[in-house]
Amino acid sequence: MEIYAKGMESRHLNEIIRSCKDKNIIVRGVNGQRFIACGLDGKDITAYGTIGNGAGAYMLGGVLRVEGSAQDAAGDTMNGGEIYVGGRCGDATGYAMRGGEIYVKEDVGYRAGVHMKQYGEHRPVIVVGGTAGCFLGEYLAGGVIAVLNLKNEKCPVGEDMARGMHGGRIYVRGKVSVPLPVSVTASKARREDMELIRPQIEKFCKAFRADEREIYSEEFTLLQPAAGNPYNRLYVNN
Amino acid sequence: MNARARAEFEILKDKERCIDCGLCERQCSNGVYKREDGRWFIADEKCVNCQRCVEMCPTGALKVIPNRNAPRGDGNWSVRAVREIYKQAETGGVLLSSMGNPSDMPTYFDRIAINASQVTNPSIDPLREPMETRVYLGAKDHEIKRDSSGRLITENRGLRLEVPILFSAMSYGSISYNAHAVLARAAQELGTYYNTGEGGLHRDFYKYGASTIVQVASGRFGVHKDYLEAGAAIEIKMGQGAKPGIGGHLPGKKIVGDIAATRMIPQGSDAISPAPHHDIYSIEDLRQLVDSLKEATEYKKPVFVKVAAVHNIAAIASGIARSGADVIVLDGWRGGTGAAPTRIRDNVGIPIELALAGVDSRLRAEGIRDRVSLIAGGSIRNSADVVKAIALGADAVYIGTAALIAMGCHMCRNCHSGKCNWGIATQDPALVSRLDVNAGVRRLIGLITAWKHEIEEMMGGMGINAIEALRGNRLMLRGLGLNSRELDILGIMHAGE
């Protein structure tokens, strides 16, 4: 099915998508409509244009491809499935996502991957082709974030990254030159660390025709939470 | 320093009565009692005065009393203040407490008197005449619709409550499986709702979904599509009366077994739910979360937004009413908690009575009161508090602490220790099994049934036969010993006027 969305209210558009029996849906002329593919499962949606806030929120499965950019909170509390954004993403991409994968060809805004967590089989992944804004991976509790810095910026991440991180892994291609919280350790990603994200990097390259060799041409920095619970000694029983 | 000398409680064991059965030792999860070489060693300093041993002792040999020995206090330095300084000096720790603000700051409910009819506008006998305690929350029909044959269309998408009392958010993790079972079953039988808190919904309790409000907070623990669809309504938690501006943090050591599975995080992982929602910095952003939850559930579920009562609450509530939320929940500063920094709990926020009256007045003045329902929480202790809250403007009230006391809580205020001897605020299977679910359900139903009768009696006395006619009916209230500013904010006259 093909939908021409120009001028359409978000709610109306989403009702059409929800009630559509086809697996493959193409939406053209998207211009900021919100919550597209919200709670989606088992469909393959391709949206052309700029997709609005909350795309793929609570998504369970299926694929959302955006031929354009996405605004804020793409993949909010996402549980499964895949989102591909051919342009850039606004703030809070992948907020509290628990599963599924988000691939962004270019940059993401502030607070990507905030509160991301993993659980059992659910292991959420965000791969960013360009750079990420401040507060990347704030409160990160699980899952993987990879910043590929394909434009080779001097520092592809913003200030205050990994604040409150207590689980998961963040990979950054190149050096991380912003200050890190004491509860996080940064090291050179070893071969076995890179093996863990190889399938996702392959997917990224396939989706956006990126050069895998170029990605691996530079070493990655790996951020992980330091051992121990930082809150253990904070309180006294009263 | 000698901890025992400074113990808060003192345990008196009557040697004449004690039969050395050792039940107290087995019952106490705090390790107060120990018997060695035929002698009892009693660690007063470990006692939290939960009364478990006293109630279980078969011969009545035990008494727990406030320690007759105490650090010296005075009119300015309370013994409590001195004890707290000792604790902090020794550990360097932030004071952590449980349950609601216990301070002796004013409780306005206690200074408000309810009206009754005399001679004119006769009172109603609820035992003889019909009395309506049913309330609908959320979306309302704004116009009367009729079908083609002229019959009224009474489709109502709101939540139907048989009594204007709901059980407030307490997560599985902060309270036990059995405690959740009691709340769920009692809510179902009473025709009202309980609230999951931000700990997810245990698979066993999906069957009570029609009586469940599922909560979504900043950490999104346990939030997924099935969960959102399971409940009768969705509550966005922005704040909590016991700790406005402070988030939740269930330490990794409490994230075990089913708690982890229900929150959908690995065992041992800290569950951090910070106060700010990092995707909500404005009313427009709040609207976005409201909309995304409605979109995910196909606009079938009412969305609540819960906030702590703070200084600018009227303006905040006005914004929430315009965000598309169906219900605003106001949680006052006496509201309970499974753990909160003591200073925050006891000093931050404002009393629910003032917040509720202020919000109701503001929404009325702006002509948007009928867009939303209001729920008040934060220490509703009895049926008179319910009546007063409704007359101040609430559609319904949330109770937490009262429900726990009904099922056996003895207010020892140590929920955060995880060692609750009554099986409520603990995850230790041996302790949890002490809470008899059937008995708990019976007791909680008993409490609400009794309150319902009392509410009907009070309404009848005022000549009112439906809760709807009591809501915001401030003429039914009078203040006692309040100054004119307080009366203005509460929107009530002084007694005698």
Concise structural overview:
Chain A is an alpha/beta fold and 238 residues long.
Major protein interface: A-B, 49 and 43 residues
User: Helical residue percent of chain B?
Assistant: 25-40%
**Which fold name fills CATH's third level, the topology of the largest domain in chain B?**
TIM Barrel
Question: What's the average pLDDT of chain A?
Answer: 94
Radius of gyration of chain A: 18 Å
Strand elements of chain A, count: 12
Task: Give the class-level CATH name of the largest domain in chain A.
Answer: Mainly Beta
Q: What is the total domain count of chain B? A: 2
How does CATH name the architecture of the largest domain in chain B? Alpha-Beta Barrel
Contiguous uncertain segments of 5+ residues of chain A: none
Shape of chain A: globular
Please provide the count of β strands of chain B.
Answer: 21
**N- and C-termini, Cα separation of chain B:** 57 Å
Name the helix and strand elements of chain A from N-terminus to C-terminus, one letter apiece. EHEEEEEEEEEHHEE
Task: Give the SSE map.
The complex is a heterodimer of chains A (238) and B (497).
Chain A: E1 2-4, H1 10-19, E2 24-31, E3 44-50, E4 63-67, E5 82-85, E6 101-104, E7 125-128, E8 141-147, E9 167-173, E10 184-188, H2 191-208, H3 212-216, E11 220-225, E12 235-237
Parallel strand pairs in A: 1-2, 2-3, 3-4, 4-5, 5-6, 6-7, 7-8, 8-9
Antiparallel strand pairs in A: 9-11, 10-11
Chain B: E1 9-13, H1 23-27, E2 33-36, E3 39-42, H2 52-56, E4 62-66, H3 79-91, E5 94-97, E6 112-114, E7 135-137, E8 159-161, E9 165-167, H4 177-190, E10 194-195, E11 212-216, H5 225-230, E12 233-237, E13 248-250, H6 257-263, E14 271-273, H7 283-296, E15 303-308, H8 313-321, E16 327-331, E17 340-341, H9 342-347, H10 352-365, E18 373-377, H11 383-392, E19 396-399, H12 401-407, H13 429-432, H14 437-462, H15 467-470, E20 477-479, H16 484-490, E21 493-494
Parallel strand pairs in B: 9-19, 10-11, 11-12, 12-15, 15-16, 16-18, 18-19, 20-21
Antiparallel strand pairs in B: 1-4, 2-3, 5-17, 6-20, 7-8, 13-14
Helix pairs in contact in B: 4-14, 8-10, 11-14, 12-14
